[in-house]
User: What shape does this take?
Amino acid sequence: MTEVYTSSIINAPADRVWARIRDFNALPSWHPLIAESRIEGGAPPDQVGCVRDFRLKDGGRIREKLLALSDYDFSCSYSILESPMGVDNYVATLKLTPVTDGNRTFAEWSAEFDCAAEAEAQLVADIGDDVFQGGFNALKAHFGT
Amino acid sequence: MVEVRRSTVIDAPIDEVWRILRDFNGHDRWHPAVAVSKLEGADHTDQVGAVRDFRLTGGERVREQLLSLSDKTRSFSYAIVDSDVPLNDYVAHVALKPVTDGTRTFWNWHSKFRPPAGREQELAALVAEGVYEAGFSAIRTLLSGQAAAQIAGSIEGQAIMVARHGGPEELRLAPVQVPPPGPGEVRIEHSAIGVNFIDVYCRTGAFDLLQPPGIPGMEAAGIVIDVGPGVPHLAAGDRVGYACPPVGAYATHRTMAADLVFCLPDNVSNEVAAACLLKGITAEFLLHRVHRLKAGENVLVYAPAGGVGRMLCQWASHLGARVIGATSSPEKAEAARAAGARDIVVPDGRSLEAQVMELTNGQGANVIFDAVGRDSFAHSLRSLAVCGHLVSFGQASGPVGTWDIGALSARSATISRPNFGHFVDTPEKLTRSTARLFEALRDGVVTAGTTQRFPLADAALAHRALEARQTTGSTILIPGESA
Assistant: This one.
């Protein structure tokens, strides 16, 4: 099992950051790598079990299933059903925690998955740096420093 | 139920913050609200179930129990067991997480408790501001102070730090900055460090040679890294040793006054030097300067199998004295005989003085080396020959107490109470003493004896063994050796 963990501080209250990322269908509106997204079967995006089908700007297509959503913990977990990445048993969690000192947000994005040994280093870099840190950088740019 | 949650970001790597926070008994070193913290019923601060007894700066007492501790998630939980502050059913959780974009640390502190009706807001504010936020600021100040202490040219070393007087558990390995040598100073990389019983007295506070926070230890051997201006007798690469106050030897590196440091001859290894410099110099000045031992004198040595005692037996017998060892067990008697004691007195129903008088045909001992103190002093006085010399150089059993010097007239006795420092406080005295010691080591007159080694990080184990009398011969610490 491979683990990836990325965390950051975003200069806005956790409820405001959560409002921007809570929608499971809203990746294109805040993440720079995502071109378009839809929820399969027209389900509401906060229905646990719903599936998002999205396309990356480089053309790759990924289907992910919402496993857990908590407005209490500001957290969201999902698994990959289908992707060109070459990962199995991929489960990720995106979670926000308030930093009371300064009314900021501690954001964590982590994933666990299985993959071919020779692909591991590249996948860890792609997921940790491009997807997770890339998403945090976009949030930091949006909310300012 | 009231819930309090406070969190912050500390501008330091998570391991640095965790090193401080994981010490459940360490709040009195950094938290402004805690005056004293003591551990009850446990030897180790990382023992789950341990109870810490706080006295707050306001005078209140709070006892808290460690419920969980995780080095994996860098978190711990604790509950208040009883308290002068009415925080009923209080359970708190502290967790650190790394902020991976930058080397910072997210710190979350969360608790729930049941305050008495009407005091919810007051007690929630006390916990949030007086405890959690005050703790955040204190850690921030502590870490920024440590950063400021990183002087240019310093070497990152490690040392056993005594943060306060107490048991062996107060001996903890910590990073230290070892500054470049100033005028008259030398910087040494230690290879071996001697452990002596005086280090225990420094740790407990019985002797005031170590003011916490401080590094114990009085003897070591190693290699000179660099020297400051005005140090003609040492150069980088020299193999050196020292044995004297001030304390500070339990460290990988040390910067200190150069005139306390001398070169080691080729026939004395670093480990032998660390094991026997302090004891050997002590034996040297006791036999040559405090008392000028003459051939044919009757000498009584207490603890003749111990560190200094064994060397006294070896050296005194070589000088032609008749050595009597006073010890407690057949094994130690054997070791004392091997070191040159001609006779041994052991407790056998007769008094020590009666046995000494019998062995010396009623003359008594011309000189007695007594580091036992309270329990032996009266016997020593009665064991002396006429015009005998009682040298009291330690107090392992406690202070000797107050005596009327009229008691000395029974033997026209002389008493000495030498202080190690006065015999090595000039380079001339030190050179004379070490020259004599190195010669005696070279000729096999005195030997280092058996040596027990511990890694520097395990200084606490070494002290436990020493205090439990589980060691034989000398004890040394080796930096960089793993447990």
About this structure: The mean pLDDT of chain A is 95.
